[in-house]
Amino acid sequence: MNAIPTQDEQLLFEPTAPDANAIELAFAFPNTYSVGITSLGYQTVWATLAARSDLAVSRVFTDASDPLPSDLEILGFSLSWELDYVNVLSLLEERGIAVRATERLAANSTAKAPLIFGGGPVLTANPEPFADFFDVILLGDGEVSLPAFIDAYQTVRHADRATQLRHLAQVPGLYVPSLYAVTYDAPDGSITAITPIDADIPAIVAKQTHRSNTLLASSVVTERAAWPDIFMVEVVRSCPEMCRFCLASYLTLPFRVADLEGSLLPAIDRGLKVTQRLGLLGASITQHPEFETILDYIGQPKFDDVRLSIASVRTNTVTRKLAEVLSRRDTRSITIAVESGSDRLRQIINKKLDTDEIAQAAIEAKAGGLKALKLYGMVGIPGETEEDIDATIGMMKGLKKTASGLRLTLGCSTFVPKSHTPFQWFGVNKKAEKRLKRLQKELRSNGIDFRPESYNWSVMQTLLSRGDRRLSYLLERVRHYGDTLGSYKRAFKDMRGTLPPLEAYVFTEFDRDRVLPWQHLQGPLPIETLKKHLAEAEALMN
Ligand code: SF4
Question: Is 117 exposed, middle or buried (0-12, 13-18, 19+ CB in 10 A)?
Answer without folding.
Answer: buried
